[in-house]
Amino acid sequence: MARLIDGKALAQKMQLALADKVKDLKEKTGIVPKLVVILVGEDPASQLYVGNKERAALAAGFASEIVGLPESISQAELLQVIGTYNEDKDCHGILVQLPLPDHIDGQAVLLAISPDKDVDGFHPMNMGQLWSGHPGLLPCTPAGIMAMLEAYEVDLAGKTAVVIGRSNIVGKPMAQLLLDKNATVTIAHSRTKNLAQVAKQADILVVAIGQGHFVTKDFVKEGAVVIDVGMNRHHDGRFVGDVNFDEVAEVASLITPVPGGVGPMTITMLLEQTYQAAKKAAETV
């Protein structure tokens, strides 16, 4: 039976340590890391996510601001708001909550955020640094997964890693971070032939496809480490991952639960990167 990777407990431990670092930064420099979250419209799920981020930020001693904007806002007006916070020296991290209304170009919004304040790690400048081997601000979910693997002492060097999913948010940056730790990495996706056979080669299997219980024990070799990024609503109302937990836990050595696995670590890394951005700003004053 697999051992559980408890992302919730690890996130709490890291956030307590982060609170100490924030306190120390304030005492030494007078700077309090500030996260600004821009929320366009009134999507209930987005409001929930944003609220969770603010609570975690305030608990760790951060300054936090939620900027609520109407769904009817024009793209030009939204870019102007982002520009205001780019110039605000008291703001260290800017996050624009997705999804955005159809009339707004998400790529234009992404490009408008200063790379130094892009604590989501999605700006092409930060992505380019990651792929060139000089990572700065990282996409938070892959960064959180790497922190979990390190905390549970998973040796990646020389191991075979398979990432199912090729999104810019998780799959691609996840593959690069694993590669940076000297794993041999395969990115698999919906067009991959014999997907179960490919996945079964993995010592470390990361699944991020958004299909509930897609990965069964037939995809997993004995003793593999399994990271489930998925969060899907099951027909009975429960949230489930992309991995059939009960089946796969019988063969894996380590596995993340859903919920309580990857999700809490994503918010933790968002805060960690806001702290790092504030620390960098303090060094340049």
UniProtKB/TrEMBL annotation:
NADP(+) binds at residues 165-167. Pathway: One-carbon metabolism; tetrahydrofolate interconversion. GO terms for biological process: L-histidine biosynthetic process; methionine biosynthetic process; purine nucleotide biosynthetic process; tetrahydrofolate interconversion. Residues 5-120 form the Tetrahydrofolate dehydrogenase/cyclohydrolase catalytic domain. One of its GO terms (molecular function) is methenyltetrahydrofolate cyclohydrolase activity. Its EC number is 1.5.1.5, 3.5.4.9. It comes from the Bacteria. It catalyses: (6R)-5,10-methylene-5,6,7,8-tetrahydrofolate + NADP(+) = (6R)-5,10-methenyltetrahydrofolate + NADPH; (6R)-5,10-methenyltetrahydrofolate + H2O = (6R)-10-formyltetrahydrofolate + H(+). Keywords: Amino-acid biosynthesis, Histidine biosynthesis, Hydrolase, Methionine biosynthesis, Multifunctional enzyme, NADP, One-carbon metabolism, Oxidoreductase, Purine biosynthesis. PANTHER family: C-1-TETRAHYDROFOLATE SYNTHASE, CYTOPLASMIC, C-1-TETRAHYDROFOLATE SYNTHASE, CYTOPLASMIC-RELATED. Belongs to the tetrahydrofolate dehydrogenase/cyclohydrolase family. This is Bifunctional protein FolD. It comes from Streptococcus cuniculipharyngis. The lineage of its organism: Bacteria, Bacillati, Bacillota, Bacilli, Lactobacillales.
